[in-house]
């Protein structure tokens, strides 16, 4: 989504600087806030900013457009599991000032065990935003705001199956006009294949936390749950999902937008 916004703003795949630099990730607390603010204030192009914070944790301004990207929660969980495997835990502890605390010693559970724990975790969303309750709180809140003129919901599967259509829809919401002859080049630059090929330019700069920058773009396809999640856990997930989120949102979320 960051890349799509960059392409729509600049209308060329040849971006003036690395994507992560143009579009700072506000939740990345390693960079001092005054430095981030000064960087944004100096920008003369239309700004686009990344955050993992739900809408109910953000200041909401009528002249800002909020784009919320959703994905089937089980697909997202499988992706998150592999993403964690691609992180340098010691470097993360160093950057977050946790080197004086003992490192975790328990072996990491395999994917099947981890997914089961993720589905059955009984805490609250505010305790862990990356949990299933946190995921559903985030999306349910956005779903309730979906008719607001400056809130746009996008489904991950739609970006895969109809990237050109979704980019045109977003351009309409952002009131950006793109010449017809430019569209093919912009759409191609936003594909998963091209993003992976340009990983050094477009993946987030995390101070060495990501071990393999290519693996940041692992598969880029819907349906990861079909390969890796047991049917019993799918059934358990569906039961919990209906306890945590409205039925109409789940229908949209599970059917792929």
Report on the structure:
The chain is mainly α and about 260 residues long. It has a single domain, classed as Rossmann fold (3-Layer(aba) Sandwich). About 50% of the residues lie in helices and about 5% in strands. The chain is built from 15 helices and two strands. It has helices spanning about 1-10, 20, 35-40, 75-85, 90-95, 110-120, 130-145, 155-160, 165-175, 185-190, 190-195, 200, 225-230, 230-245, 245-255; strands spanning about 65-70, 150-155. A two-stranded parallel sheet has the order 1-2. Helix 4 packs across helix 6 and helix 6 (about 110-120) packs parallel to helix 14 (about 230-245). The longest helix is centred in the last third of the chain and has 14 residues, at about 230-245.
Task: Put the structure in a nutshell.
This protein is mainly alpha-helical. The chain is 49% helix and 4% strand. Helix 4 (73-85) packs across helix 6 and helix 6 runs parallel beside helix 14.
Task: Name the features.
mainly alpha; Rossmann fold; 257 residues
Q: How is the secondary structure organized here?
A:
Layout: H1 2-10, H2 19-22, H3 33-42, E1 66-70, H4 73-85, H5 89-95, H6 111-120, H7 132-144, E2 151-155, H8 156-161, H9 163-173, H10 183-189, H11 192-197, H12 199-202, H13 224-228, H14 231-244, H15 247-254
Parallel strand pairs: 1-2
Helix pairs in contact: 4-6, 6-14
| Number of domain modules | 1
Mean pLDDT: 87
Structural class based on helices, strands and sheet pairing: mainly alpha
CATH superfamily: P-loop containing nucleotide triphosphate hydrolases
The general outline is globular
CATH class type: Alpha Beta
